[in-house]
Design brief:
This protein is α/β, with parallel strands linked by helices. It folds into 2 domains: 181 residues, Class I glutamine amidotransferase (GATase) domain (Rossmann fold); 111 residues, Orthogonal Bundle (Arc Repressor Mutant, subunit A). Helices cover 43% and strands 13% of the residues. The strands form 3 sheets. It has a 7-stranded mixed beta sheet with strand order 5-2-1-6-7-11-10, with helices on both faces. A two-stranded antiparallel ribbon has the order 3-4. Strands 8-9 form a two-stranded parallel ribbon. β10 and β11 form a beta hairpin. The chain starts with a strand and ends with a helix.
Length: 311
């Protein structure tokens, strides 16, 4: 699977480093992985912070690739170069996927690639984005949005979450978790989780965070949202309100996603029956498991297994 990391007008070292770590780092533990190159359409030399300089291949046209990664793009550039826009559109029209980190969504929007899609960017640039692209469905307070073809992330570090999601869809839950562990990151932060804006929420030892840790470690039993609220020492009404405020999704959706993560992992690495997987991942029965797969993943458990068992 071929990946191209595209540098544009200026170098953002952290975002580029994230893209390289995700898609270019050798993974000898896997039998197959991405083949990645870094290119530019406009320059061979880039100046970074603290006197650093980066050299890359300058090309006339983008290489054929399955995935194009835009680490960053200057927010102040109103009209990107025609050559750059044409390269993105040609890649997209060939069926290639495109993702951007942080301010890179401004480039995707300028190219028309976010039309009729949900978009996000760093919260500092949200108003600029909405004013410049009022026709695009901008989503506040999410980490990333990815529909399988085009994706964009919020702040710089949220690009890692988006990249892990891409890896999960390409190679499965087990490999995505392996990459996350190597990065010393949580296995999964859903795109619906809230960005940390001016006043990050502090979760106390006896608050929501500890209750969610408890829930994650006890998915083998059929726990309820009432159980989690009790662990957080909150009434159900207060818990629901605080959860929605902090995570931008319902507690039920969060719990279903965690159970699905366990189920996906079991489907990939075991030969357990659907009934056994449902029990181990915290679903009431196989029917409920299948319903949640259809609801959140638009696929059946067995279709998922056939897709990823080879990985």
């Amino acid at each position: 699977m071929r990946v191209t990391i595209l540098l544009t007008e200026q170098l953002s070292l952290f975002e580029l480093g994230c893209a390289v770590e995700l898609f270019a780092m050798p993974r000898p533990e896997f039998t197959d992985w991405y083949r990645t190159q870094i290119v530019s359409l406009s320059s061979q030399r880039y100046t970074g912070l603290a006197g650093s300089t980066l050299l890359c291949d300058m090309v006339d046209t983008l290489p054929l690739s399955d995935l194009l990664v835009i680490p960053s793009f200057p927010v102040g550039v109103i009209q990107p170069e025609e050559k750059l826009i044409a390269g993105l559109l040609e890649h997209h029209q060939r069926g290639g996927r495109i993702i951007s980190f942080c301010s890179g969504s401004f480039l995707l929007a300028a190219a028309g690639l976010l039309d009729n899609r949900v978009a996000t960017t760093h919260w500092r640039y949200a108003e600029q984005f909405k004013q410049r692209f009022p026709h695009i469905r901008y989503q506040d307070n999410i980490l990333y949005e990815y529909d399988g073809m085009v994706g964009c992330s919020a702040g710089s570090a949220a690009g890692i979450d988006l990249g892990i999601e891409v890896i999960r869809r390409d190679f499965g839950y087990h490999r995505a978790n392996s990459v996350a562990r190597r990065l010393v990151l949580p296995a999964h932060r859903s795109g619906g989780q809230a960005q940390f804006v001016e006043k990050p929420v502090t979760l106390t030892k006896t608050g929501i965070s500890q209750a969610l840790d408890w829930a994650t470690n006890n998915l083998s039993s059929v726990i309820t949202i009432d159980d989690i609220a009790k662990k957080a020492s909150m009434t159900r009404r207060t818990f629901d309100r605080q959860f929605n405020k902090n995570y931008n999704i319902t507690a039920l959706q969060w719990l279903s996603e965690r159970k699905l993560e366990v189920a996906k992992s079991l489907l990939e690495i075991t030969d357990l029956s659907i009934d056994e997987i449902a029990a181990r991942s915290g679903f009431e029965n196989a029917v409920t498991l299948r319903h949640n797969f259809r609801k959140y993943l638009s696929i059946s458990p067995m279709q998922y297994k056939r897709t990823f068992c080879g990985s």
